[in-house]
Amino acid sequence: MAPTAVNSTTETKAEDTLKKANAEGKKKKKKKKSKKKKLEQTDPPRVGLSKLFPSGIYPEGELQPYKDDNTYRITSEEARYKEKLANEDPETTYNDIRRAAEVHRQVRERARKFIRPGLTMTEIAEFIEDGTRALVEENGFESGVGFPTGLSLNHCAAHYTPKLVILSQGDVLKVDFGVHVNGRILDSAFTLTFDHTYDKLVEAVKAATDTGVREAGIDVRLGELAGAIQETMESYEVEIGSQVLPVKPIENLSGHSINKYQIHGGKSVMLVKNSDQTKMEEGDYFAIETFGSTGRGRIVESGECSHYARRVDAPHVPLRLTSAKTLLKSINKNFGTLPFCRRYLDRAGESKYLLALNHLVSQGIVQDYPPLCDQRGSMTAQFEHTILLRPTVKEVISRGDDY
């Protein structure tokens, strides 16, 4: 028997229907690729930087060319080669201080929004330090807080961390905190006010810091750099009620070089012109730090001390107090030569340590850093950036969008 014939039109329609059904089925099976959401910093800041920068490479600071006789450095093959070696050397790696700087920028961005009248100084310090520890992913001497948060009010310029004092609307608050990675300390500070009376004071000090940063460089003499800072600062005045007061640089405070695990490295950038012929050198790492005042422009040590650091050149002396020996072991274990404060000793589990601490100070093993204050009734302001004098270019490590 012969096969039955099928209508060709009907067959074509059936094939089209089948193809369509198969195509729709494939579409249903295909899952939509979800876009991976970019991880962002929280508020308060708690996301570790390694999660935000999985490559492990952190942003450069602001790059500024050298001036005058050093302009050749940016294209110099010799300087480029030196920089390549410096960047590859684990002892001088730039990436560590850039990581510390990025922590500082992210923490201070949120701190500037958080800080407001009505908060206690302790609440502010803990907000900053908890954020710093989380972002730098604190790990013993490898990474952590660089030094105790300074929260100095009004006539007090530095080294003050009060406990129960409440921030007021009319206060001028200096916020100075640090971050370290492998002992490379990032030191930067800013000033906050909550009314407009002292805007010019803040503006003067910020401008003076920017001048110091701009004029700093390889072979620059420290005494001349101080003169440039002084000139900028003294070009400002502050109007308070019916009075017009000059802004004075605080003559016995200074910026400083920074060494590994040592916040004050030996070189000082004073704020008033002087005869210091010491030169900045290639590879130097400096905190350009300026203070201005509506008072006498000179500070004295005043008030209860909260800041300390074990001296790098501490003498080997026998300690007669057992409690002092025990406390020194704790300081060596937890801080080494990094600065600490009494709040940090409390956090480390120490108690009833004041006698032992004073004994370590009297023996020259620990250096105390009391609050530094101008005359009462005056107001002081502070700004600070850390800079790295690279072989080819100057890098303002701590620069951010805010200052």
Automatic annotation (TrEMBL):
Amino-acid positions noted as binding substrate in the UniProt annotation, renumbered to this chain: H159, H264
Binding site for a divalent metal cation 1: D176, D187, E384
Cofactor note: Binds 2 divalent metal cations per subunit. Has a high-affinity and a low affinity metal-binding site. The true nature of the physiological cofactor is under debate. The enzyme is active with cobalt, zinc, manganese or divalent iron ions. Most likely, methionine aminopeptidases function as mononuclear Fe(2+)-metalloproteases under physiological conditions, and the catalytically relevant metal-binding site has been assigned to the histidine-containing high-affinity site.
Protein name (record): Methionine aminopeptidase 2
Cellular component terms (Gene Ontology): cytoplasm
EC number, UniProt record: 3.4.11.18
Positions with biased composition (Polar residues): 1-11
Catalytic activity: Release of N-terminal amino acids, preferentially methionine, from peptides and arylamides
Compositional bias segments (type: Basic and acidic residues): 12-25
Compartments where located: Cytoplasm
Main location, first listed in the record: cytoplasm
Functional description taken from the UniProt entry: Cotranslationally removes the N-terminal methionine from nascent proteins. The N-terminal methionine is often cleaved when the second residue in the primary sequence is small and uncharged (Met-Ala-, Cys, Gly, Pro, Ser, Thr, or Val).
Transmembrane segments: none
The organism's place on the tree of life at top rank: Eukaryota
GO MF terms held by the record: initiator methionyl aminopeptidase activity; metal ion binding; metalloaminopeptidase activity
Similarity comment: Belongs to the peptidase M24A family. Methionine aminopeptidase eukaryotic type 2 subfamily.
CDD domains per record: MetAP2
InterPro entries: Creatinase/aminopeptidase-like, Met_Aminopeptidase_Type2, Pept_M24, Pept_M24_MAP, Pept_M24A_MAP2, Pept_M24A_MAP2_BS, WH-like_DNA-bd_sf, WH_DNA-bd_sf
Keywords linked to the UniProt accession: Aminopeptidase, Cytoplasm, Hydrolase, Metal-binding, Protease
